[in-house]
């Protein structure tokens, strides 16, 4: 390829780098404002007002929180494994950011020099890539909990690891039945098939439900927040962490939530498709911007539902969690897969 | 057995049916309840902007009173210090000299009068003990401070403004404006 011959397409490379920078900074800003939204949603659901001191309606609250985290004392416990202790939050943050790479944010822009896709890499195994990177996320939790040399952190990390592994199975099988329907692993293709047609949620309602529950568990969100069960494990796997290292853990959780909302919107709700609007006849730039807005609207709804669930439901007990994962969701996902496969075979005959 | 109240609810110990076991209807119900709270009235009082009115018997910061002609009422009898259960009040008496009749109402007055606001429990017993109506408790909080020693309030902090010379400040301290 061009890369091997050192005959680089510099404009292409620069474009991609700019896109990466934009997407990463936007994800960070969104994660920041998710913390604000989380506090506001919690307040609304509990008849309170929420943060309203920093700026109008408290919109500068995340900035104040971030500044506070930076100024906190950085403590690395003497008995910890220093290298792994620092590696933990880095890994959590990195895996959270890496998933952005294959998401199609919108249709291509066009300024007269050919289309500029709003996707960093359209690889043909997009879903598998996301799945792989998300599984790596558990290493951040495991390494952080292990390196802290603290009983509670270690317990929480073990819980986190077993939870993520258990729910990844059901999630993977739910995705397999989705792939039966789409016939492609590329996220771009999956969105392309849904534009102007029915969304995948219509074909895979059960698959979506399983995927959604597993996404909650993968993001360590309530009611599956056992790795950071404050009331049982002091604070969970990041108990020994302070300052921005703690911030990275908390932040990666919010980025994960954002990314899983984007993935759910992409896989099941048409991605950047605007319902009942034909974008094919529009100016491509306008269509891309509107598509991005549509995707973000769907994402905000998902994020709200995530938070709504967190502030409504109590945490599962550990045996209940395992029961639900192995005896509930996994058989259900298998049945869903077999039925979907059968129906797809029958219809294609 | 006869129930003690009319609000008794029997505990249902039947084994859970299918819908109860899959847990989702209960989840939806719970989420509907929390969602309905988004539209309820918030009981929050946004404190520095909004203040709840105090009751007229509220016991706040102390004030040393003056009479109509602006003379200090306190005679340093020490009854308030004796009454004080927290032992927060100290004072030193002095004799009124000639020419000070406009400053002090009686022949004896308090040269030094201190209340330690960190010890004070705002019980109002000093107000009850005072035979001269010289000390009473207002509706203000003790304001925050950076050093402990600043919480020992002396006469300059406690004395009410002179009604003759500083009419506006006196009215405000008395709470006549609101």
Task: Using brief descriptors, characterize the structure shown.
A: 349 residues, mainly alpha, 12 helices, 2 strands, B: 178 residues, alpha+beta, Alpha-Beta Plaits, 3-stranded antiparallel sheet, two-stranded antiparallel ribbon
Would you kindly provide a brief summary of this structure?
The complex is a heterodimer of chains A (349) and B (178). With 349 residues, chain A is mainly alpha-helical.
Number of domains of chain A: 1
Order of helix and strand elements from N to C terminus of chain B: HHEHEEHEEHH
Shape of chain B: elongated
Q: What is the C-alpha radius of gyration of chain B, as a whole number of Å?
A: 28 Å
- Give the low-confidence spans of chain A: none
The greatest interface here is: A-B, 12 and 14 residues
Outline type of chain A: globular
CATH class of the domain at 62-174 in chain B: Alpha Beta
Widest sheet of chain A: strand order?
1-2
**Strand composition percent of chain B:** 5-15%
Return the structural class of chain A.
Answer: mainly alpha
How many beta-strand segments of chain A? 2
Helix share bin of chain B: 10-25%
The fold-level CATH name of the domain at 62-174 in chain B is: Alpha-Beta Plaits
**Spans of at least 5 consecutive residues with low confidence of chain B:** none
The CATH architecture of the domain at 62-174 in chain B can be given as: 2-Layer Sandwich
